[in-house]
Structures are given as structure tokens and as C-alpha cells.
Amino acid sequence: MEPRAIGAFLDDHKLTFKRDFPLFDYTTFRIGGHADFFVMPQNTRELALLQGFCRQNHVPVFILGGGSNILVSDAGFRGIVIHPDLGEEFRIVEQSASHLRVFVPASARAPLAGKRISALGFQGLEFLTTIPGHFGGSIIQNAGCYGHELTDSIVSVEAVIDAEPRILDKRECAFSYRNSLFKQNPAIWVSGATLEIPAGNAAEITARIDDYKARRIASQPKNRRSAGSIFKNPAKEVSEKKAWQLIDEAGLRGVIEGGCEISAEHCNFIVNNGGGKAADVHALASLIETKVFETTGIRLEREVVFVGEF
Ligand SMILES: Cc1cc2nc3c(=O)[nH]c(=O)nc-3n(C[C@H](O)[C@H](O)[C@H](O)COP(=O)(O)OP(=O)(O)OC[C@H]3O[C@@H](n4cnc5c(N)ncnc54)[C@H](O)[C@@H]3O)c2cc1C
């Protein structure tokens, strides 16, 4: 579809958007080219309208949350990037001495939501305070760490499917390790989720948050731009080893390409040392895939989503 016709549709429906918009500032890698259109829908109705338009007109579309689990191509994205702007505030659905039910919009910052909900004295979201990105991205990804995953707390997910808002029961969402129905099917757009978490001891909740933060600081590359773990850990039946061990054993720790590096501190991270390009990250990720396969016969699966042409 002609860019002029896309612009006219967005103007006609008074949607908030920008043209030829640089994406690098919206990614934790600080890498990536421009999007033809960058649209910020303010509610589920606008999300549904956009989904119907893109589908009907075969317009390439990508949903961007906090940009902490993606690599955007140096050439950017030809089509529409949607950055939901549904607000930051969570809504308490039900609260009792024993539990809390809360709806969190997709555009809420996940670590902030985790911190603010934990501060109400309910436990189970302490881990989320250490995972960057937006809440929608953490649902898609079934984000997790330190033995916890978001699916542990999810009751239902609000999503746009076939240009209609729907509520999916958790069982319909097919959550598994860093995976979900939404990750498998990018045509489904998430607008939020309802969580239920039990009451906890305030001091213990705070202690857990402090412990997780300290573990992060100890284990992650410092002062470097990244998108977290580049590869998923292999399933236990495939290998008892974590992805970082396989990468380390392939001799790839600290390998540099252009402005990027297979982190010497945590070798399942690729870091941007400054001036890095998406092509550098892509070359390093491909090198890891090839070398790990040659040395172990294991095909690592990417956790980070590559956006645009590579
Ligand atoms: C330093 C660092 C540490 C990290 N540690 C962890 C960790 O311990 N555990 C962990 O699980 N992850 C970790 N991550 C990865 C990342 O933070 C999480 O996966 C996060 O939940 C991604 O959310 P996001 O909003 O940034 O998603 P984005 O990067 O914006 O998008 C990721 C994917 O989700 C899709 N998406 C985003 N929002 C929506 C939506 N509303 N509807 C439909 N699709 C959508 C995108 O299209 C894309 O395919 C880390 C990242 C960094 C940089």
C-alpha cells in the first residue's frame, strides 16, 4: 500500500503517529534504523482499528513494547510500528486480606508495575522488578527469572484478535518457557492482563527484591547496551548446560565484531560497546549459532526477536 494512503488513514482516524521515525532510542540495544510509520494507539479500540486496517491492506506491522528483547535492522522497518500507549496505571479488580487481583495495561513499565504492586504487600511479582521492558512484552515472552515466570500469576489476558478485543483465559495462552500463544502468533496483540497474587510479608518481599537486584548486578554486563540473553537455554532433554556454557565452551567469550561484543562478562549477552550496528549483532549471533552447532550438535534458539531485513 502507498505510504500516502497509510498516512491518510492515520490522519482520518486522528491516530497519534510520526513518519520516518528513528527506532534506536526505543530499544535497549540503542541500535536500529527508521520505521516508515510509528503509531501510538491510546486505547483498545484504536488497536483493533489498526489491526483491521493492516490486515485488510497487507501492511507490514510490528508491535513494539519497551524494546528490550528485539534487534531492529540498520535499514529499519518498512511499514507500521505500533507502540501501544494505553497508560501506566494498574487497576485493582479485587483486594482481600488473602489476595489481590489486578489488571495491568500492556504499556505499563514492567519493573515499575512489579515494584508498585509488591509495595501493596502481595507477593509473586518481585522478580519482575528486575526485568526491563513493558508489561505487554513480558506477557508475550512469559518473562521470568530466579525460578519465577509471569504465567505463575496470570488469570487472563486481554488481546485484540481479528480486529476485535477478546479476553483469553490463561489456559488458552499456551505459556511455556519464554513462549506463549502470542509469541507464536504475532497477529494477536496484547492490551493487558489480569493477575492474581497472594498476600505476603512486607519485609520478606522487600528482601527478595533486594536479593534479586544484587544478583543482577553481580551477573550482568555493566554499563553496556544489550537485549538480555540472546539465546534461550536448551531444553533439559537436549542439554543440561545453559546457553552461556555452550557459547563459552565454543570459545566465543569476548569475541568482537564492529562496535559489538559477545560479552566477556556474560557470554549469552551481546553488548553494544558504542557505535554498534545491527549487522554486528547479527554477525555475532550467526557465529554463535554456527560454532555451537559445530562443537555440540545443538541448535540454539534465539530469544531476541530480529525485526526488519537482515
Ligand atoms: C539487561 C536485560 C536483562 C533481561 N533479563 C531478562 C530476564 O531475566 N528474563 C526475561 O524473561 N527476559 C529478560 N530480558 C528480556 C526482556 O526484558 C523481556 O523479554 C521483556 O519482557 C520484553 O518486553 P518488551 O516490552 O521490552 O518487549 P519488546 O522487546 O518491545 O518486544 C518483544 C516481542 O514482544 C512483542 N510484543 C511486545 N509488546 C506486545 C504487545 N502488546 N502485543 C503483542 N506483541 C508484543 C514484540 O512484537 C516482540 O516480538 C532482559 C533484557 C535486558 C535488556
How does this structure look, described?
By secondary structure, the protein is an alpha+beta fold. It has 3 domains: 3-82, 2-Layer Sandwich (Uridine Diphospho-n-acetylenolpyruvylglucosamine Reductase, domain 2); 91-218, Uridine Diphospho-n-acetylenolpyruvylglucosamine Reductase, domain 3, CATH 3.30.465.10; 243-307, Uridine Diphospho-n-acetylenolpyruvylglucosamine Reductase, domain 1 (Alpha-Beta Complex). 28% of the residues lie in helices and 24% in strands. It contains 8 helices and 16 strands. The strands form 5 sheets. Strands 6-7-12-10-11 form a 5-stranded antiparallel β-sheet. A 4-stranded mixed β-sheet has the order 1-2-5-3, with helices on one face. It has a 3-stranded antiparallel β-sheet with strand order 13-14-15. β13 (256-257) and β14 form a beta hairpin. The longest helix is centred in the last third of the chain and has 19 residues, at 278-296. The chain is globular and about 55 Å long. 43% of the residues are buried. The mean pLDDT is 97. The structure holds flavin-adenine dinucleotide. Flavin-adenine dinucleotide binds at residues 28, 62-70, 84, 106, 110, 131-134, 136-138, 140-141, 143-145, 182, 189-190, 220, 226-228, 305.
